[in-house]
Specification:
Blueprint (H helix, E strand, L loop, with lengths): L6 H9 L14 E6 L25 E5 L8 E7 L18 E8 L6 E8 L12 E9 L3 H7 L6 E6 L14 E5 L13 E5 L15 E7 L5 E9 L4 E8 L6 E8 L18 E8 L5 E14 L15 E6 L2 E7 L11 E4 L4 E8 L8 E8 L4 E3 L2 E5 L9 E5 L5 E5 L8 E6 L8 E7 L8 E8 L3 E10 L2 E9 L14 E3 L7 E6 L2 E8 L9 E8 L6 E2 L5 E2 L11 E3 L7 E9 L5 E8 L11 E8 L4 E9 L8 E3 L5 E8 L10 E7 L7 E5 L7 E6 L10 E6 L9 E4 L5 E4 L8 E2 L2 E5 L17 H9 L22 H9 L15 H10 L18
Antiparallel strand pairs: 1-15, 2-5, 3-4, 4-15, 5-14, 6-11, 6-15, 7-8, 7-14, 8-9, 9-10, 11-12, 12-13, 16-17, 18-19, 19-20, 20-21, 20-22, 21-49, 23-24, 24-25, 25-26, 27-28, 28-29, 29-30, 31-32, 32-33, 33-36, 34-35, 37-38, 38-39, 39-40, 41-42, 42-43, 43-44, 45-46, 46-47, 47-48, 48-50
């Protein structure tokens, strides 16, 4: 019985299915996905193939191999007819252009090995694998006749083309359809089949007993060097059968057809999936029996036509965040609920005034925290409810570095940027199919893994009238680099993803955080001496006003990019000389567009008393110099909170600065800090969470944050794996709401878990500690509001309305004076009359967006 793949193969195949998910009922629309290689190496064409992985389908081409080798040994590139090399005598593969895929499976690393390439064609908007579909392609063996005669001599010498449904190797291997040509006899092969192309006619039902010679269907077409064959397949998932025709392209009279063949499925009950389904991964392989074997073949005009699967995303049954840790148990560098981690991926949420909703993404998981889901949802400020979260993709890992970021363009389309940590996985860009809707998304880019591919720590910034400036990190063979790409529509990108402009490449790499002010984009970054992220230090800032075309220091000094020297004009402060590490938190701007950097310094990268004091700082450019001030302290380097710079000049921070139940661990109890004097002094005004079972981590600020959903975060046990819930608070920090862990309907009202310590008292609508005419004006402005009124609207009894009950509360707690100067408390009935008549004077529209982020 042949060994199709090893267990390591199975892992690679599973990784190949990233983002496919489970989707709802298919639409009747017929589509065709193609790989004609007409686009050569360009990313801009749907079937383009830029070197190793490719673009255009839901997944890239993958190199899949037997990992007994110590290095990859399959080479596959796009060739053009006339290229020098093995294929010159065999031209042409037609129709189409001269481009085609050439694969050289050099097996010299192993005595026995496989070289396989595969490409997925499912995913949102792809082929529905539950409906019949057709596959066609041109295929040519490029080994010389002499090589075939001398090395293609064993049953382990083979060319195979197949789809794998069960992902099992060895004796439990299974597949839907299978085409093969074998170089030697075996118990599962008739002697007369050796050296001929065969189709495999399996039972196609549970209980199939394996791979047998009696099921080989000999096409009568001999394996020949340089022969171009045209394969046409029709797959029937409902009956687990397939039809196939193979024709000699240059001699059409040589042809063979067989219909109604069964799938080969799992051969051992209980070891795989007895109701096998297709993987959606076409795989083309060559295998050898000896160390010097080399399988070579070419592929062209690969098309799959079938019913289009719906773009509608599957839903989760509630909000659950990913738990993640770095380090060993008992010695975590950081750990806990990481649904909104890290700060270098931003933003996680985006408020749209057009529909009065805050859309957000986070790292979700299943009931056992076994995988990372990219989740999308929104909070409706009109109803006070959250939408059932939708699963955009399954990243098949638990690495919270792969969390998503969100952006919304000026037409209301929602973009999700799916980062990948390091170079091991592809990255993805998805767009909602309708404005302001999370129901369905289409994948608009799949950025391949590798040094010249994917992206990490994505920070998409949308600038009105300009489009996207997407700042992110790539991992190169020289370390991490900060790069960017630009697009007017988020679909067509100005720079080839394999050649993105680098703006910073300091020795050892760097982290960055970024923000916009009008058409200005600024980024703050540190650097990693000796390529050690735990030695991160120094503070830098640079900016652009022309979508990345040129970059300057804050004083306008033009920078040569990429910046490569540690001492340069972008340096804000040399912390390396002081022996301090720098952990970046946020960037904001004052009214004049001057940047404010928020960060933490410490002496030790590990938790514990050794790193104290862990001090937050602000660095504010005053027009001529950087003014650096201490803010407050915390007990962990990864205690993160955003900086809010508000319309009245106040600076606000929401962060887990109270140690919480798990002292000296990541996170703690969430607190609110305010400075009224540009960072000279800070006052802790709220303890948002208290008495918690677990630490809270990574409060995130929505872009254009609205008062009712002002920051959101997750919790989790910082000492051991645990469940993780998600929470949010309002602008005034009056209390905290928890997103529902389980939902029965499409919408649910978050659970109010309690008022904050230091929350404003009854009747205090603006949180200034007084109940006076200012609060009455706010209540009057929102009088009889009944669509999810909140505290800062004047809803003091939290019933979602602003009415006479709230007026009574305000009157009962009156601390100010009436307009006549009397200190007497007005009667509620008189207050209602005054409010309804607008007689308190000066009633004005209350600010809807208290922060300046994204101005």
């Amino acid at each position: 019985m042949p060994r199709f793949v090893t267990p390591r193969f199975a892992v690679l195949f599973i990784l190949a299915l990233l983002g496919t998910g489970t989707h709802r009922l298919a639409q009747a629309t017929q589509i065709t996905v193609a790989a004609n290689f007409d686009g050569g190496y360009s990313y801009g064409t749907v079937d383009a193939y830029p070197g190793k992985p490719g673009d255009g389908w839901a997944e890239a081409w993958l190199e899949l191999r037997d990992d007994l080798a110590d290095a990859p040994y399959t080479n596959f590139v796009v060739r053009t007819l006339g290229d020098s090399g093995y294929n010159d005598p065999y031209a042409p593969l037609v129709p189409g252009t001269d481009n085609y895929l050439y694969v050289d499976a050099n097996l010299s690393k192993n005595a026995v090995g496989y070289g396989v390439v595969g490409r997925n064609y499912t995913g949102p908007g792809g082929i529905d694998l539950t409906q019949p579909y057709t596959i066609s392609f041109l295929y040519r063996v490029d080994e010389s006749a002499a090589a075939l005669a001398s090395t293609f001599t064993n049953s382990s010498d083979r060319y195979q083309i197949y789809d794998f449904p069960t992902m099992n190797g060895g004796s439990t291997a299974g597949c839907g359809w299978l085409i093969g040509a074998y170089g030697g006899n075996a118990t599962w092969l008739n002697p007369s089949d050796v050296g001929y192309w065969t189709f495999y006619n399996g039972l196609g039902t549970a209980g199939d007993t394996g791979f047998y010679a009696t099921r080989q269907v000999n096409t009568g077409i001999q394996l020949q060097a340089g022969q171009t064959l045209n394969f046409q397949l029709t797959i029937h998932p409902d009956t687990k059968t397939w039809d196939a025709t193979v024709t000699d392209y240059n001699n059409p009279s040589t042809s063979f057809n067989r219909n109604g063949m069964g799938w080969r499925i799992d051969s051992s009950a209980g070891t795989g999936n007895p109701n096998a389904t297709l993987s959606g991964m076409n795989q083309f392989s060559g295998a050898g029996n000896a160390a010097n074997d080399e399988r070579q073949f070419s592929l062209d005009c690969l098309t799959i036509t079938g019913a289009q699967i719906s773009n509608e995303l599957p839903t989760a049954d509630g909000f659950r965040g990913i738990w993640y840790a770095i380090g060993d148990p008992g010695n975590y560098k950081y750990s806990g609920g990481m649904a909104t981690y890290p700060q270098q991926i931003a933003p996680h949420a985006f408020y749209s005034e057009a529909v009065d909703k805050t859309f957000f993404v986070y790292g979700g998981t299943d009931a056992t925290n076994s995988t990372l889901y990219h989740m999308v949802s929104y909070f409706d400020h009109q109803t006070g409810q959250v939408a059932r979260p939708r699963i955009l993709m399954d990243r098949h890992s638990t690495n919270a570095h792969d969390n998503p970021a969100i952006a919304i363009d000026d037409q209301g389309y929602i973009f999700v940027f799916s980062s990948s940590h390091s170079t091991s996985q592809a990255s993805y860009l998805s767009r909602s199919t309708e404005p302001y809707s999370i129901d369905a998304f289409e994948q608009v880019a799949a950025i391949p893994a590798g040094y010249d591919g994917n992206f990490s720590y994505g920070q998409p910034l949308f600038l009105q009238s300009e489009g996207f400036l997407f700042l992110h990190t790539i991992f190169t063979d020289q370390g991490r680099a900060l790069v960017y790409n630009t697009s007017s529509d988020g679909i067509n990108w100005d720079h080839d993803w394999a050649a993105r402009p680098q703006i910073v490449r300091l020795p050892g790499g760097q982290y960055q955080i970024s923000e916009t002010f009008g058409q200005k984009v600024g980024t703050a970054f540190n650097y990693h001496p000796d390529n050690n992220v735990d030695a991160r230090t120094n503070l830098y800032y640079m900016q652009t006003t022309n979508m990345g075309a040129t970059w300057t220091a804050v004083d306008g000094t033009l920078l040569t990019t990429p910046v490569t020297t540690v001492t340069n004009a972008a340096l804000v402060h040399d912390y390396q000389s002081e022996g301090l590490l720098v952990y970046l938190k946020d960037v904001q701007y004052d009214d004049a567009g001057n940047p404010i950097l928020f960060y933490l310094t410490t002496t030790d990268y590990m938790p514990g008393a050794g790193g104290e004091p862990r001090t937050f700082h602000t660095a504010h450019w005053n027009g001529t110099s950087w003014v650096i001030k201490d803010a407050f302290t915390t007990d962990h380097n990864y205690d993160f909170g955003p900086l809010y710079v508000e319309e009245d000049g106040a600076w606000r921070v929401i962060a887990p600065t109270d140690p919480g139940p798990e002292v000296l661990s990541t996170g703690g109890e969430m607190e609110m800090w305010i400075s009224e004097d540009e960072g000279d002094t800070w006052q802790k005004t709220r303890q948002l969470t208290h008495g918690s079972d677990n630490n809270h981590t990574y409060a995130r600020q929505p872009r254009n944050a609205d008062e009712g959903f002002f920051a959101f975060w997750a919790d989790g046990d910082a000492l051991s794996p645990s469940d993780s819930q998600l929470y949010f608070t309002d602008w005034l920090g009056t209390g905290v709401w928890k997103l529902p862990e389980y939902m029965e309907g499409d919408f649910a009202t978050p659970e109010f878990i309690g008022e904050s310590l230091g929350a404003p008292g009854p009747g205090d609508a603006n949180g200034d500690g007084q109940v006076n005419a200012a609060d009455a004006r706010i209540l009057a402005e929102n009088w009889l509001k009944s669509t999810h009124a909140i505290w800062s609207d004047g809803d003091f009894n939290r019933d979602g309305r602003v009415d006479d009950l709230d007026a009574s509360i305000l009157a009962a707690n009156w601390t100010g004076t009436t307009e006549s100067g009397s200190a007497n408390v007005p009667e509620p009935s008189l207050l209602v009359l005054l409010l309804s008549a607008g007689m308190l004077g000066g009633i004005r529209h209350r600010k809807k967006l208290p922060t300046r982020r994204g101005a």
